[in-house]
Amino acid sequence: MYRYKLCDSCLGRQFPNNDINRIYGKKIRRAIEKNQIKKECFICEGMMSNLNKMAKRILNEIERFEYSSFMVGTILDSDIIEREDVIRSEFKVKGGEPIKSEITKELSRLIKRTNGRTVSLKRPELNILVNTLLDEIEVSSRSIFVMGRYVKNKRGINQKKQRCKQCKREGCKKCRFSGFMRVPSVENEIHKFLIKKFNANEVKISWIGSEDKNSLVKYNGRPFFAEVSSPIKRKALFREKKMNHGIIIKSAEILRKRPIIDQGFIMKAIVNFESNLKDVKRLEKIENYFSERDISIYSMNKNKYFTRRVRSIKLKKVSGKRFTVELICEGGINIKKLVSGENEQVEPNFRKVMRIKCSVDKIAPFDIHYVKVQESEKTLKT
User: Fold this and answer.
1) Rounded Cα distance, 367 and 272, in Å
2) From CA 101, how far away is CA 74, in angstroms rounded?
3) H or E segment at 350?
4) 70 and which of 126, 162, 177, 349 could share a cystine (Cβ 3.0–4.6 Å)?
5) Are 175 and 167 a contacting pair, CB within 8 Å?
6) For 144-156+185-255, CATH number?
């Protein structure tokens, strides 16, 4: 005790107790010496006495965030830990709380006392890292997961952002170092909408199926999931929002947990195609053939086949060589190749069954009328 000058916190921490270490240390000091410590603490070198100032700095840093729970972590100079080990080794002290634990606990207590938020060690909405080596405070906000739906009322708009052809996503002057071409897309519009709504750094979108560049998405729209990273705001009211290029955010809601992204879905599409079929009586036979029919699809990316089912089709001759088909099927079927039979990657296909060349309209190939996730759209995983 007399060889090593310790502050009240570092003194009380060396012994197991049910009190606040600083208060317990004062009790010990009063029992064994008259004068309070005047020199700098051997272990923390004054750090424990400055925790109030550190807590105020943290509160200033996190003031702009919306959150209900938080967690504090610390990075300490290894010299501090080694000095505490010297004391415990020399005096055979066991069972005391480590200094790192006390600092995080005391900072958490001071913050909670000021703002009333909950300390959470499992899934805090705000992570606070205090680096005593660099005298820095890092704050990170837990991601928010959103499920929404969009409508696309204009043809010629890509669903996904197109990577820059010049730099191949490396970043260059042409793409303003974004890695993506400056062309309209559904992804760009949803990205802008959610970034502004949550004042976030980044948004990653997961799609429930895809459509052609020249397809429309109608009625209640196609669903999507989005992970919003480092949001400042966590609460938002959603209303239907008209974006640029004929895109409408029909709905959006915050999910409680990370969603299951890879969900099966059923969709209805109206397909426009051309064929030399002259005998319209064959249309009913073709409808019967494809209804409740399993379709084999070859994936070039995975180099394997998988199966999806066509639930029903209704064929109609429009004029001359022009036909439409109302198609209800499971997601994952390439509609263009289902009609054309291109590269025989989708079998059976219209061309093979009809034994006549078929091709999807280039200007208006197919439009999506509804997409329904087979599982509940709010199915979540822990």
Assistant:
1) 9
2) 9
3) helix 350-354
4) 126
5) yes
6) 3.30.70.2510
Q: Which of 185, 225, 192 is nearest to 209 (CA)?
A: 225
Report the candidate in 198, 190, 191 with the shortest Cα–Cα distance to residue 150: 190
CATH class of 8-141: alpha beta
CB atoms within 10 A of CB 324: 16
pLDDT digits (tens, 9 = 90+) for 107-118: 999 999 999 999
Tell me if 231 sits within 8 A of 141, measured CB to CB: yes
Residue 183 near residue 162, CB atoms below 8 Å:
yes
Dump pLDDT digits (tens) for 284-328.
989 999 999 999 999 888 899 999 999 999 999 999 899 999 999
Q: Yes or no: say if 303 and 284 are a contact pair by the CB < 8 Å rule.
A: no
Determine if residue 56 is left, alpha or beta; phi over 0 gives left, psi from -120 to 50 gives alpha, anything else beta: alpha
| Among 51, 43, 52, CA closest to 10 | 43
Element (H, E) at 338: helix 335-340
pLDDT at 85: 93
Tokens of 241: 């929002």
CATH topology (fold) of 265-373: Alpha-Beta Plaits (3.30.70)
Give SS3 for 272. Answer: strand
pTM of the model: 0.87
DSSP letter assigned to residue 36: P
| Token pair recorded at residue 138 | 């890092």
- Domain spans of the chain? 8-141, 144-156+185-255, 265-373
pLDDT lower than 50: segments of the chain: 1, 376-382
Angle CA 263–326–321, to nearest 5: 135
* pLDDT at residue number 34: 54
For tokens 């959610």, the residue is 194
Q: Give percent of the chain above pLDDT 70.
A: 96
Report helix, strand and coil shares of the chain as percent, to nearest 5. Answer: 25, 30, 40
pLDDT of residue 107: 97
> According to the model, what pLDDT value does residue 382 have?
32
Q: Chain centroid to CA 171: how far?
A: 23
In the prediction, which pLDDT does 82 show? 95
Structure tokens at 60: 């200033």
The first and second tokens of residue 178, run together, are 């974004």
Q: What is the largest CA-CA distance in the chain?
A: 110
